[in-house]
Each structure stands twice: as C-alpha cells, then as structure tokens.
Amino acid sequence: MAEFRFVHAADIHLGSFLHMDGMEVHPRLQELSRTAAYSALDQICHIAVQSKSRFLLLVGDIYDREARSVRANRYFAESCKKLQKQNIQVLITAGNHDPIKEYGELFQLPDNVHIFQADQPEMVVVRGEDGEPIAAVSGQSYGRSRENSPLHQHYPVSRDRIFRIAMLHTQLESPKSYYIPASLTELTEHSGFDYWALGHIHQPCILNETNPVVAYPGMPQGRDFGEQGSGGCWLVEVDDINGINMEYKVTSPVVYLNIFVDIGCSELRDVDNLDQLEEYLISKAHKTIHEETSRHNNEVFLEGCIVRWEIAGKGRLHHYLSDDPQGCEQDIIQALRDALSGQTPFLWTDSVTLRTFNPVDDDMQSQNPLLQELMDQTLLSLREDSELRKKLSSNLGQAWTANIDYEDQDEESLPLDQHTFESIVEDAVRLILEGLAEGGES
Predict the structure, then answer these.
(1) Structurally, how many domains does the chain consist of?
(2) Which tens digits make up the pLDDT trace of 13-40?
(3) Domain with 38 in it: what CATH number?
C-alpha cells in the first residue's frame, strides 16, 4: 500500500452566520459573523497544501442552503483552483443542505474537483505522483434535502489492493431516518472499506478506531452554542508500517464556550461584593483565552471566544446576587464586555446565568441526614434509570423535548439535553432545601 495523506472535512456551511447576543453594537463581531466559515475553508485548504495531501474529502453541506449564494459559490470555486495548482484532488458528496440540482454550480469548478452524482453510487480512483492507484473512494450525493434510502449499501468496492474509502453524510443511529439510515455496527461489519468518512454530525468523533476507521470531522467553524469547542478536520496519513494515523487539525477562528463558575470555590468563598466577583471572572477569562490559543497550536489565528457564563454554587455572594438577579446578570455582562471585547483575541460575553443558593442548605442537610440520603438517592436514580428520567421529563410539560434534532428544530419546544435536565433537578432540590430552612427559622 502506498504512503499518502488526505484531509477529511465536512459541514462547512458556507453562507451561514455566527450567532451571538449583542453583536449589533460591535462592528468587529458583525464582520466575523459573516466571514468565519470562509476563514475555516481557507484553513482546510492550507492544511491540505502544507501536509502535501493527495486529496481532500468534503462529505456534504459545503453550502448552508440549496440556493448557493454567489459569494459562497465563487469563493469555493477559487479555493479549489488554488488546490488544483498544488495537484490536490477534491472529492465531494452533496449533503442535505446542498443537494445536487439540475442546474449545477453558479461558477465552473476546476478539473481537480469531482462531485459524486445523486442518481447512483460511483467510485473514483485516486492516483499518486507516479500515476499508480493509491485509493478508491466511493460515494453518492443527496438529490434532495431528505434521503431515506440506505445509499451506502450499494456502494461499489474496489478489488485492487489499495486503500478503500466510503463517503457518507448520515445522522447514524438516529431514531429518524431523514439522512441516510445507517448503524455503526453495519459500517464496522462491512468488509469492503478501510475508512468511513462521515459527515452531518457537527462534533468531531472517532466511532471506530481501526478495521475500519469510522469518523466524523465535525464542523470546521461552530455557529452557536450547540456547536461548542474548536472546529476542525482530520488529517489522515496512510502507510504500510503504521497503518492509519489521524490528527485533528483546528480550523475555527472563533470558539463558542460555556464557562462554569462555583461561588463556593476557594477564591470566591469569602468574597462579599460584585467588584471582586467581576475581577475573578476577568482573570478566568484571560486564562480561558490562553488555553484556547494554546489549543490552536499556532495553526490558525484565534480571533476570539464567545462565552456563556453559568455562576452557581453556595457562598456568601448568593446574598448579593439574589436580591436583583436580572440586574446583576446585566451588570456582569456589561463589565465583561467592556473589559474583554476590545483585546486580541477577544472574549465576548453572550450571557450570564445565575444559579446560586444559600449556604444555609448545608446546615439543613447536616441536621437531616435521612433527607440528604433521600435527595442523593433520587439524583442517582434519575441519572441511571432512563425510564424514570423519561417519566420526569414528560411531567415537565410539552415545552421541553428530549428528542433533539438540530437539523429539524421545533421552534415551539426547548431542547432538554442532559445538562439542562440535571440543572432543573438540582434547582428543584435547592428550592426544597431553602423552603425547609425558611420553615425551620419561623
């Protein structure tokens, strides 16, 4: 087997915007909202060139909409021309956001680009610099925004002793089957391929490490808090001795983060005014920026972080925060924006949520060990018993849904993920304890 490299990317969503609260008053953020996805594409191409990759796989949703914008289509065509000059082939399967249309692209793509057709699966053989075959890539594009058929079951498989790749834009294991129904077991038991290059899920993950590799690259640039963390792509190296080596390469100039702060921590336990809290938050913000800059490893310039702060826990600060929680949240937001939004890299505070409670709860718990045991057992049962959790979720009302589908979001329902569910339960426990404490004092 010949030694070579390739880049596996997906879900660039050119033409989409970053979402953040308050950016209308900040021109720099408005510009980044429009350009971040294009910068991520630039970085993908840079990685392919610098690593001397033979080809680039783009597994669906290059564009955010079926109706490609002129800017997005032109930008992508120009990017492919730059790769053509470096003799890098670009293999594309269209996804549910950008299914193949009869009229094709707005601008002509160069000869190094191959878009898999939608009416039937096909296979492309990639050759090395010496002209010898090094890989066979199979795939099929979406012809419409929803694809209920298991297209991959009909992929052609090369009989030659070369590396075999299957490109598949799928939701995988989803209870719905709008996006090519498939299971991980089905892919891992398929003997025809060495690497399943997946797309559609916006978080990176390796679902199977070898024989075959099954991997999602995630989104090169997140657009909201449902797509947190550094976005990127996989740089894959194949050789006879070491097999398959995968390295995750960061491509996102902007990172979305949730930051949790416990007012009961050693630094805040005895703090009794908002000035000291804000100083601590600014210090934590600087540490966060340093960590994210280090994570980028100088591979891509970090423009900044967009952050949601969750301030929780038990401590003296609760008395100051609880009198006017909304006023405190707005004051902290403004203080953090004033202190951090003008620097490079910036940190923009999208929101602040207060979930603090009274330290008197500790006394109530120590005085009522049976109550504490009951609370602990209830929380443990809710974490481990899926049926009990499902029953409680249904009792929360129709405003919440645990069936989260980011492609088909119900605007009338709120997503009930694990973090939100546990926060609701913990808040309920806190209210019970505070009520008992108040009753004991009267």
Answers:
(1) 3
(2) 999 999 999 888 788 899 999 999 999 9
(3) 3.60.21.10
Closest to 165 (Cα-Cα) out of 91, 109, 111, 226: 91
Cα separation, 22 vs 307, whole angstroms: 12
Last residue of a domain, one of 333, 357, 381: 357
The SS3 call for residue 8 is: strand
pLDDT band at residue 154, thresholds of 50, 70 and 90? very high
pLDDT at position 364 over 90: no
| 401/379 Cα distance (integer angstroms) | 20
Query: Is the domain of 230 the same as that of 190?
Result: yes
pLDDT in tens, 394-404: 777 666 665 55
On whether the CB atoms of residues 288 and 280 are closer than 8 A, the answer is: no
Residues 6 or more apart in contact with residue 90 via CB below 8 angstroms: 55, 56, 58, 80, 83, 112, 113, 114
What average pLDDT does the chain have? 87
- pLDDT the model gives residue 419: 64
Burial of residue 304, with CB atoms counted within 10 A of its CB: 0-12 exposed, 13-18 middle, 19 or more buried: buried
Same domain assignment for residues 47 and 65: yes
The reply to whether 392 and 347 lie within a common domain is: no
Instruction: Give 40's strand partners.
Output: none
Strands 254-262 and 346-357: unpaired
Tokens of 121: 């699966």
Lookup: tokens for 408: 């088909």
pTM: 0.84
Calculate mean pLDDT across residues 251-274: 93
**Residue closest to 144 by CA, chosen among 75, 196, 88, 66:** 66
| 371-375 contacts, C-beta under 8 A, 24 or more apart | 371/436, 375/429, 375/432
Span 165-183, pLDDT tens digits: 999 999 987 666 789 899 9
Beta carbons of 56 and 9 less than 8 angstroms apart:
yes
List 90's β-bridge partners, or say none: 56, 113
